[in-house]
Design goal:
The chain is mainly α. The chain has helices at residues 2-37, 47-57, 98-106, 122-133, 141-159, and strands at 60-62, 73-74, 79-80, 86-89, 95-97. β4 and β5 form a beta hairpin. α1 packs antiparallel against α5 (141-159). Residues 74, 76-77, 79, 96-97, 100 line the site of one zinc ion (ZN). This is RING-type domain-containing protein.
Length: 160
């Protein structure tokens, strides 16, 4: 008898976990659908959108020795470019690793690390940082995904 009730209570917990997961996945689905259909709020720029603007303004290219005569180095990480590495050429003709520059631009300086030429329009940078300063509330998707993975981890650990 006790084994049966224990089983039933496990079943109950399991179904609660299951429905919570289902609900969260529905929320994410709805979010992704509405996110696509609704116009992006101009005052809020997520990291993804910010990186997209960077990409639009300064498309990623691959470094090839053949194009540049002298050895060039990324002045952010101070290492020489390797053949085929992802780089960005800025309008000021300075070149950096894609990742180095993206990290730099996300830290609040939307200017060339070398000559301080503006890389992005001021309003884009302002909006991005306003978004970043809004403390984690605002039900970011990362939060939901974290909760989801925690639940997944919990349920698999506990029951399966
Ligand atoms: Zn670099
Ligand atoms: Zn520059």
């Amino acid at each position: 008898m006790s084994a049966v009730s224990e089983f039933l209570s496990h079943l109950k917990t399991l179904s609660i976990v299951f429905f919570t997961l289902l609900l969260l996945e529905i929320i994410i689905l709805i979010r992704s659908v509405t996110g696509l259909s609704s116009k992006p709020d101009k005052r809020q720029i997520s990291t993804t959108q910010y990186l997209k603007v960077i990409e639009e303004k300064n498309p990623t290219t691959r470094y090839t020795r053949r194009l540049t005569a002298e050895a060039a180095e990324c002045r952010v990480c101070l290492s020489e470019f390797e053949e085929g590495e992802k780089i960005r050429d800025l309008q000021c003709k300075h070149t950096f690793h894609k990742d180095c520059l993206d990290r730099w631009l996300q830290q609040g300086w939307a200017t060339c690390p070398l000559c301080r030429t503006k890389v992005l329009p001021d309003d884009v940078v302002d909006n991005y940082h306003r978004m970043q300063n809004q403390v984690e509330y605002d039900g970011s998707d990362e939060e939901v995904i974290f909760l989801l993975s925690a639940l997944h981890g919990y349920s698999s650990h506990r029951f399966f």
